[in-house]
Amino acid sequence: MMSADLPLPDKPPAPRSRRARDVVVVAALLALFIAGLIGLAAATGWEETRAQIARLTLWQGAILLLLSLVNYLLRGLRWHLFARRLGIATTPGQDIRHFLGGFAMVVTPGRVGELVRMRWLKRETGWAYERTAPLALMDRASDLAAMALILALSLALAAGGMTGAVPVTIAALAAAYVATRPRLLASLVTLAHRAIGRWQRLFGRLRQAARSVARFSDPRVMAPALALGIVGWLAEGYAFHLLLGWMGADIGLMKAIAIFVFATLAGGLTGAPGGVGGAEAAMIALLALDGVPMEVSVPATAIIRVTTLWFALAIGMAVFPFAERASLRGAHALERG
């Protein structure tokens, strides 16, 4: 958490040394991800794992990436919907650029690095961070609500039990509920301030941001926002279903979606950057419980994570420089205007 006396600077987010450190962190996470999966593949047999991966064609890989892109673009449109509701005069192109560019920070702990979107908004519109903070809050709350609803529905329809996912569903819905209740949020901020006893200015800004959440309580905003999130996450869950079917382990559409969404939520709850480690472990374990052999579950997990998490990171890294330059041009235009 940042001190209110040390606002984010209106310059690139970090000096070269910090950027180099971020690159090292990302590389280390990717190395751990690959090393873990290689270890599992070796334990289950290289030939079987390689044979499963070799079954996939280029067009099948393209379909998986396309379904992930559908998710990102729909959630980018939701970000635009929230921005317009907040009163920020941005275009859909601007907001989608900010949203996709923020994926460059997707592997930061708790994904807090994605708050770089707030800096771009400040440069291009002049809005202070505390005024745009509800965007990040509502984006995360909408994801939690959409994924929890998908998980609840898929658990109800899937054949076989996944009762261990029920607490995660309830926790996600509870977090989404709290994040969309302005009075409750403001009260929690006040309690935190009383407990800590300092940083009055920072907590004042947090209370202001919490009260701004009231702008999003209109069903005409939340209904389409939830719809965009649900369709987006269903697209990735459907990709996982297709992948398992192509690899000869069709466990049913709703069960595949339930496992994918649960593993994604479980990985996020660990707090690890990008959920690396936790999501993969949960996915492989749940597939094993459903009778999917390790020589299928390990490569399937590796492929779906590459086409979701690491694909998002690649998009973010590609868009980030354009978003940075556009925000600098916007800042110069505001200064001249």
Topology:
Layout: H1 16-44, H2 46-54, H3 58-86, H4 92-101, H5 116-125, H6 129-157, H7 166-179, H8 182-196, H9 200-212, H10 219-246, H11 253-269, H12 278-289, H13 294-336
Question: Could you describe the 3D structure shown?
Answer:
The chain is an all-alpha fold. The chain has one domain (57-180, 217-336). It is built from 13 helices and no strands. Helix 3 crosses helix 4 (92-101), helix 6 packs antiparallel against helix 11 (253-269) and helix 8 packs antiparallel against helix 9. The chain is globular.
Number of strands: 0
Order of helices and strands: HHHHHHHHHHHHH
The biggest beta sheet is recorded as: none
Structural class comes to: mainly alpha
Mean pLDDT: 78
What's the number of domains? Answer: 1
Radius of gyration, in Å, reads 21 Å
Number of helices: 13
The stretches of 5 or more residues where confidence is low (pLDDT under 50) are: 1-15, 40-45
Can I get a quick summary?
The protein has helices at residues 16-44, 46-54, 58-86, 92-101, 116-125, 129-157, 166-179, 182-196, 200-212, 219-246, 253-269, 278-289, 294-336. With 337 residues, the protein is mainly alpha-helical. It has one domain (57-180, 217-336).
Task: List key phrases describing it.
337 residues; mainly alpha; 13 helices; globular
